[in-house]
Amino acid sequence: MSKHTFTSKTFLSIVLLLIYIPIISLVVFSFNDSKSLIQFTGFSLEWYVKLFESGTIMDAVFTTILVAIISTIASTLIGTLGAISLTKNKKWLREWILNFNNIPIVNPEIVTAISFFVLFGAFQIERGLMTMIIAHIAFSVPYVVITVYPKVRQMDADLISASSDLGATPLQTLWHVILPQIRIGIIAGAAIAFTMSFDDFVISYFASSGSAVKNISIYLYTLKRGIEPTINALSALIILVIGMKITFDYFKTQKNLMEEEE
Amino acid sequence: MKKIVLLIVLSLTLSVLASCEASDSIKLFMPTEYIDESLLEAFEEEYGIQVELIVFDSNEIAIPQIEDQSNAYDLVIPSDYAIEELAVKGLLDTIDWDRIDMTKDLLDPAITQLWPDCGCDPADFNVLNYSVPYFFGNVGILYDSTRVTLTQLEALGWDALNDIDEDVMFYDSTRDMIMVALKALYAGEVDINNPTDAQLAAAEAWLADTTRVSNITYASDEIFDAMLVSGSTQYAMAVSYSGDAVYLMSENDDLGYYVPASGSNVWLDAFVIPKNAENKDAAYDFINFMTSFDNMLLNTEYVGYTAPRTDVISDVITNETYPESSYRMTVRTNDSIFRYNTELKVKMAELWARVRAQN
Amino acid sequence: MKPFVISKPKIKTKRKWTFEGFLGVPYQAVIGFLIVIPIVLMLIYSFQSRASSQTFTLIFTLDNYLRFINEPIFVSLMAESIGLAFVATLISLLIGYPLAYIIARSNTKTKTLLILLITAPMWINMLLRTKALEQVILMTAPELIGTNVAIIIGMTYVYLPFMVLPIYTVLSKIDMSLYESASDLGANKLQTLIKVIIPLSISGVLSGIMMVFLPSATTLVVPKYLGAGRFLIGNLIENAMIAQGDFGYGSSIALLMAGLILIFLYLIKKVDKYTEGGDE
Amino acid sequence: MEKEPLNNVKNTQKLDEPLIKLIDLAKEFNGQVVLRGIDLEIEANEFVTFLGPSGCGKTTTLRIIGGFVEPSQGDVLFQGQSILGIPSHKRPTNTVFQRYALFPHLDVYDNVAFGLRVKQEMLGRFTRIKDLKKSLKIESNSNGLTKSEFKKLFQNHKQAYLANVQKIKDDMDEKVRKYLKLVGLEGYENRRVHKLSGGQQQRVAIARALINEPKVLLLDEPLAALDLKLRQEMQYELKEIQRRSGITFVFVTHDQEEALTMSDKVVVMNHGEIQQVGTPVDIYNEPVNKFVATFIGESNIIEGVMKTDFLVHFDDQDFKCIDKGFALNEEVDIVIRPEDIDIVEIKDGWIHGIVTDVVFKGVHYEIDVKTNARTYTIHTTDVQPLGKEVGLSFLPEDIHVMERSN
Question: What is the DSSP letter of D5?
Fold first, then answer.
């Protein structure tokens, strides 16, 4: 493949540096022994201790993970089955459904958020954990569908006929043939759903406003007094987990590549 | 594999259900960073009642949430004028003072002076019919004396915020900032609860003043970080509530608190029980717990706001926990309280949106 | 061919689709109750006169829209939000395109590493990233906080990966031999880029633009941390909905914004079709 | 020729119902009729081939029998019973799909075992034990058994059940290996299907379908993707498998040679209609119309007039023939197969012409002879020089007269 010129290497390095400087500084200051986020005065782990002692932060972390897991499972399930059933719908119906499906995707997040806020307000649904989960499911499902649906369409329709022909009931066909075939799409959809839920701020903020439920984003946004390096400690831990995941992914793809070359 | 997934789903569902189900608990809706949370634990221990703390940034945000019947808070701590609005809208229970251990005669004279409990005019709204005082205070300028001098402030009053070339924090609160602008412009010549349109327009111009020399940032509780560390304060001046100022001054010796002579707002935050509260008995228990001498003292020491009980105030001042000058509330000629006024509220909300949109 | 008429009544094929039909019910419920109905409610509220969230009068009025449009400050705020987002999108494109190009032309191993490095920050909470940036700006150039520059830097920083990723995806699918065949035909590097590569990658550029522009234009977070509490259009909507509890007004601003953005995106697509000679 | 009525299946006196009977099938897709008036009987143990160009409706007919397509009209009887509305997984048919439709996520063994597995519901063992317990509980309640007695009873049943499950598993394994052996894929059990060659994939598809011991095996152009040599090999093998298993094969192809070599019965289709049903020999020698004649083998098709019985007129001459039963002076189509024409001296021929083209075809030469009326194609083993004037001769039985079709 082509060699990088000096210019492109420099450009690449500068951009990467700019991307990572804030992240590195975030991590560095999590070890600061004073409250300052601007001056590093010495090394300490006190913010990590404080982090685990803080009920509010731990609650927010727990809420975030809980909402992400439940909404990922639910939206993956709903979206996958929905995508499968789409192929069986009449063309006009399918087109309408897909158009509606795209509403949350092409709309700014805040519009979707407001729409949930209005929905829960109009029907007097008490905002809280449940509404947050419902909102997350609702905005994840369309992404799962657009990820899974192409895989369903790519699938050889004869495979379903073959399965049925060999005596499998529709449920068995779904489980033993269709789902394994679209597995990659499902995994990708679930990953998107999880990431979006885990990072979501705007929609969660509106869908749970007025309640005590906070995910990490809402906690940060509404945080005012005592912004302490505990947040940096939390970020550092999140970065650590993500870093590990990325490293794992990297080595996995490298391994796959090597295997393919063999 | 399938079983593991099933197990996870099941346990998650159960934990969600469990968190929804409340044995005996109250939903307390109050401003952010406004309570010593260890008292909540103490209350939970003593009464076996869980307190679910839900916070709001401002009365303006809180009112629609309380109106939203699905929320069903058991206890709310809004400010005086918001209490009036909620009461007028029929959302509040009246307080049965027989069930309150803290008698009214224990209240600081400033409170009884501003919100008299004479019962003389039943048509006249009395905040104490609907609420039990929590903290009270006023609005002033918290300043870093190494960057701004008291003399400057005394000379300029509220205009110091616009006229001194320094970083300034405006409090992100509709009513308080409009009050500041009106007092800055008209001092005692304005009824802050019923200003003329011209006065409001002038206030808007004052707030959105493009010719001012200072750099304005809108913030609220961020003040605690910004002003905490001596020598590296983010703002030279900040519009601040007395209690926040008192707390910060105890942490940073450079700080001073000045209430301009052209007048300020004296406010009262108090417990109210919404009509749709689900656990009113527990709400009374909590009020009594928080307004007892010991707990109120602990609470006021923690947050720095002025307690409504005279005995607590005396204790704070004799022990020099906080300086009397800023901790004790005195009502001066140009000071006023807020009242509820529907029309004004709408006008102010629109005015505020315009001001904020311009910055 | 002879005309042929099917004489007997058609055989009903009921049982065949019931299973698949059943599978789609939850999805259709989500679409109906959580996507269509909320948007319809927003529309209804936006045409209601100022009323509390609970009361419907069902009297059609344009008050909410007029209230917004007749206030020059708000209109200019919307323009400012769109303008800032536009500049941020442009800068993201100027940085993101070469970046994606360089990555796409790297060897496979470097490619994976680089794309992971670029996308990794996407996994970190957006507020945390914004705060991290704020921290760095406070350390290096605190006077920037509150200015348009800081806001644009913030938007670019937070959303850059969303620009790189789709462009990279398209570029990496372009057959490498195209680069060579173009240079075979005597095109120099720049010509290859302009005549061959850019037109082929336009679809990636478009999704990149959408994915940066949409969230930038409506962000609540960037102006809060980097704009020293300044309002952008998102904050105005937040203020209307949460602080004022005015569903109709909030909905109308949100819908106006959504409409404007849709028009903007539509125009971009038009331009794209035009440059491609309408062959897609 | 005898004018046998097309597709007349009024065999009412027959006591044994045919295995499959198609009655007046029709199908329309989006307002387009792709199949019409299909009447056909398929007997047990038959190797039936649907032959026709693409789009003739042969695959649709197959899919209707398999249960993947519902007909718009008509009925499908299986041993006299209508199977319409019965989903494909409950039909006594199995299918080998055109592109095999092997499950890419399963290896060879699992592909072949698929049908057995879904039927045995091996994965549902857990629920079965639960069902067992439930039914035992009801039983023991009515018998008034104590708890411990019930426990014992249940344990015994469970043991027996598990042993049975193991047996089923073993049987299944044996069967899978048997069928893999049948198609010559021993040792390929753990291969991924996409790593197999086309022929191997095809064998997997056949084993996978046969293992279910269907009454009817439907094969949708299964050899289309194979190269010539492999195709011929598989033709032979398929025929062998059919003979040994005694299963009815319904085979779809567009390749006439394939149809002629393998089938007991050929069904020629065109434009969604059956053109002719018969043995390969019948179809070849006695095509009922121009379409069948041209589609099957190569033909010289000549328009002529049937003067009387046994006398036909074309190329300005009268020829004797062996066909009868046409109207006087009826316009007809005449087929003369290229191999039935002999090249002779001019004086010995019925007609004469000039050799215009000679192509060597391996076994024979294909020679075009241009006469006054037309160009005849002739297959012969003797080469003729280009430009030579020759005579053509054929016997009366080589002249095949058909109704004129449009």
Answer: P
